[in-house]
Give the backbone structure.
Amino acid sequence: MIEGDNMNDLIQYNDNTKIASKEDINIYLAQEFIDSSAPIATMAFPTADHPIIFYQTRETLADLDKYKAFIDNCIRRFRKSRAYKGYKAYLMSLGMDRCQINGNIQDGMADIEMHHNFLTIYDITILISQHILNTVGRCTTFDIVALLIQEHRENNIPIVMLTETAHQLYHNNPDMYIPLSMTFGQWWNLLAKYSYGITLDIAYKVINYIKNCQNNNELTDLQFYKLRDNIRSWGEYNEYNYYHFGSINNRLNSRGYINSPNSFEIYGSNSNNRRAPQEEAGSRRVYTEEELFGAGF
């Protein structure tokens, strides 16, 4: 086993590898699952080119194929867990035992499936894993699965119950919209809690959903409009490390959970400190607002 300082010769792991500070009290660090003070252990073999690493970091998951395999494995293990089946049974015990599009179809007449509305299970797993990698700096498959289970049990996931046919219809039609009033879960808490994992793709999906809710006259709380603006800045910050003009201030209790469903507040910073997109993005292409968020937004 290789531990401690010897590990640092193989993988650079320090505050420079993360885009958030572990000392920031407003950042959720999943300390009940991840001991960030423990050394990253590895197992080396004389005939192997590289050691086996028992934690994943931003460096070990830099390859997109490896990262996709990691995400797929987390989702597969979560879906096969007892907690996943138990949560679906819990929702049905609350009365969500019928299709929310075809309300005349109940469980027993057809298979009722648990649909993750507007943010897929892939989006949510990426959100959580990116946040942990960008803050704690390390994670395992078991850590991400435990966090997926936790957020479902905390009812922070947007859930809609659908028949298999309606579920397939949703995923085959990118323009299909299921209203906020039909969605179970305080998904805004999820975004506030894992703000360092918000990618531009996730930001676009959230903004587009809020826009659809607005067009459907469903938004009665000003906080959703503030969240829309702030989600966009988080996506740009996490993607390019620039143009971060606000923050989601989480009121967290001693275990790191958000105490109130309306716990996000927006605080602006001095706009004079913003840097031009080209300065931070380097040679990477900077997309226009219209390309990212649609015309007229």
Observations:
- Residues 1-12, 242-289 have pLDDT under 50 and may be disordered.
- The CA atoms of residues 223 and 262 lie 8 Å apart.
- Strands lie at 42-43, 52-53, 112-116, 159-163.
- The chain has one domain: 5-293.
